[in-house]
Amino acid sequence: MTSLVFSMVLAAAFMHASWNALVKARLEPIVAMTLLTLTAGLIGLPLLGILGLPRAAAWPYLAASLTLHLGYYLALAEAYRRGEMSEVYPIARGGAPLITALAAAVLLGETIPGHALAGVVLLAGGVLLISAGRRGVSGVGGGYGAVGFALLTAAIIAGYTVVDGTGGRLSGNPSGYAAALFVLDAVPLPVVAIVVRGRSLIAPMRSYLVQGFLGGALSLGGYWIAIWAMTRAPIPEVAALRETSVLISAGIATFALRERVRPLRWVAATAILLGIVLIRL
User: Fold this and answer.
1) In whole angstroms, what is the distance from residue 173 CA to residue 161 CA?
2) Structure confidence at residue 84 (pLDDT)
3) How far apart are CA 64 and CA 70, in angstroms?
4) Total tally of structural domains belonging to the chain
5) Phi, psi for residue 260 in degrees, rounded to 5
6) pLDDT tens digits, residue range 104-163?
7) Gap between the Cα atoms of 156 and 65, Å rounded
8) Which structural domain, as residue segments, surrounds residue 158?
């Protein structure tokens, strides 16, 4: 992984944590997710006209990614409805790199050096450790429902990461692939949300259009970088490094959302940073 790819993926991690905070902080999660997907699609539409379409070989991967992303939005929204950001986000993001590494090795025959694999394991362990001692396990906070949906989210993240990493490589145009993904992705979730919620969606979204466009831009930019990075570095390494967003989300949850800090997070943070160093080596 080159220095450019490394720094860009860290920037993507910051963008990802930021738009998740917007989802959790203001609107009901499903409403916020719908607003973000719509605005990201609107932003991506003119970019798609400039960048052009990906090759035909990538379109089956786009179709698979759309299905997985719809499941991701619904699972994450339900996890946030049941639990705190500091509980849900580490589990959802921490489990994904290990599943992604296994899937990439089995499906794509993609291996990474031993020290980088150790970094992936250490980083994922640190991410999961952040949520250790959470109130939900004791049955007081979000409970096992939040944990279950967070784990489901992790599995879906691993799925769409491998799919989009492969699709981006086959597309001949990773930027065009990312733009097409976000434009098409602006349809399924809003349709489901309208069927379930009806016109009650419209009023709260109107009140947060500015935040919605900001969140949509962050979502698009962060994943755009990830798709580009996966065409230039091993998918498991990119997936793991991207999960440093958990450190950022912990800071946001603590200082912006006023969620309680646990001392164990400092140990987890150290593990994550050591994992980053090993991946970078």
Assistant:
1) 17
2) 73
3) 10
4) 1
5) -70, 140
6) 777 777 767 777 778 777 777 776 676 565 544 334 445 567 778 888 998 898 899 999
7) 10
8) 3-280
Distance CA 267, CA 279 (A): 19
Burial class (CB in 10 A: 0-12, 13-18, 19+), 124: buried
Query: What are 31's two structure tokens?
Result: 């409403």
Cα 132 to Cα 149: distance, rounded to the nearest angstrom: 16
Structure tokens at 277: 């160093």
How many residues can be counted in the chain? 281
* Amino acid identity at 112: I
DSSP codes of every residue in the chain: --HHHHHHHHHHHHHHHHHHHHHHHTS-HHHHHHHHHHHHHHHHHHHHHHH-PPPGGGHHHHHHHHHHHHHHHHHHHHHHHHS-HHHHHHHHHHHHHHHHHHHHHHHH-----HHHHHHHHHHHHHHHHHTTT-GGGGTSSSHHHHHHHHHHHHHHHHHHHHHHHHHHHHHS-HHHHHHHHHHHHTTHHHHHHHHHHGGGGHHHHHHTHHHHHHHHHHHHHHHHHHHHHHTTS-HHHHHHHHTTHHHHHHHHHHHTS-PPP-THHHHHHHHHHHHHHHHH-
pTM value is 0.79
| Side-chain half-sphere CA neighbours of 268 within 13 A | 25
